[in-house]
TrEMBL record:
Molecular function via GO: ABC-type transporter activity
One Pfam family, short name: ABC2_membrane
Chief localization: membrane
Domain ABC transporter family G residue range list: 40-83
Protein known as: Uncharacterized protein
Keyword Signal among record annotations: no
Entry coiled-coil feature ranges: none
Length: 253
């Protein structure tokens, strides 16, 4: 029989993820597998998923049995389990009361995060654009590396090779397919490097963007617009140099 031993799998996780992890382990037990799991201070929802308990205190066994037996055992020890408890449910706070309470307590729903932003979209856009600009100028070595890579290693070499390949291409009707191939190759050579650059930039800034967006600091649209503008200022002149180099070689035939 397959056995799974898991040592505190919910450590460092929130209540939602912790419950999902334990539910996966619970599913494994329904398939005939034995799962042994150590857990520290679980929530009430996670606690109810366990079939058998082994409670320890100061390195000694305090109880071993089912959840129902645990309630009776601690009752005999003078430790009563309260019927009224505060259940934390992710984004809402739900207060459950005893049915015998004639007055009753209403359910309170308190959202943790607001749905709006403190700053306007224009303010967000300007601030992110300025931050991206400051980040760029404070790292001149990175800017130089990008300039050398995209202007000389990528665009200039590509433009020179394309100019040689399509040199003296001609302007006759029979050369239409060659001209079309030159245009397609030129579009690819000028489009792919900026795309790769944009993807790598977004991947590097993704954790920061997710965290600040989750904190309602700014929206996604102002971030992408400001990032695109900063990138255009870096690579626009490179593509212009590429087109100029190809045009000079092809036309001078």
């Amino acid at each position: 029989m397959f056995e799974c031993i898991s040592d505190e799998p919910t450590t460092g996780l929130d209540a939602f993820m912790a419950k999902n992890i334990v539910q996966v382990l619970k599913t494994m037990t329904s398939e005939g597998r034995t799962v042994i799991c150590t857990i520290h201070q679980p929530s009430s929802q996670v606690f109810e998923l366990f079939d058998s308990l082994l409670l320890m205190a100061d390195g000694r066994v305090a109880f071993k049995g089912s959840i129902g037996d645990a309630k009776n055992f601690f009752s005999t020890q003078g430790l009563q389990i309260c019927d009224n408890y505060l259940e934390l449910s992710y984004s809402d706070i739900t207060i459950n009361t005893n049915e015998n309470n004639t007055r009753g307590t209403p359910t309170i729903n308190i959202p943790i995060l607001g749905t709006g932003y403190k700053a306007t979209y224009w303010r967000q856009f300007v601030t992110i654009l300025w931050r991206s600009y400051i980040t760029l100028i404070r790292n001149p070595q990175l800017l130089l590396d990008r300039f050398v890579m995209y202007l000389w290693l990528c665009h200039q070499i590509t433009a020179f090779c394309m100019g040689i390949i399509f040199y003296n291409i001609g302007h006759a009707y029979s050369d239409a397919s060659n001209i079309m191939g030159a245009l397609i190759s030129l579009i690819q050579s000028t489009s792919f490097p900026p795309i790769y650059y944009a993807l790598t930039t977004l991947v590097d800034e993704q954790p920061l963007m997710f965290r600040e967006h989750h904190n309602r600091t700014y929206a996604v649209l102002p971030y992408f617009l400001s990032t695109i503008i900063i990138q255009l200022t870096e690579i626009n002149d490179h593509r212009g140099t590429n087109l100029s180099c190809v045009a000079m070689i092809v036309e001078n035939n």
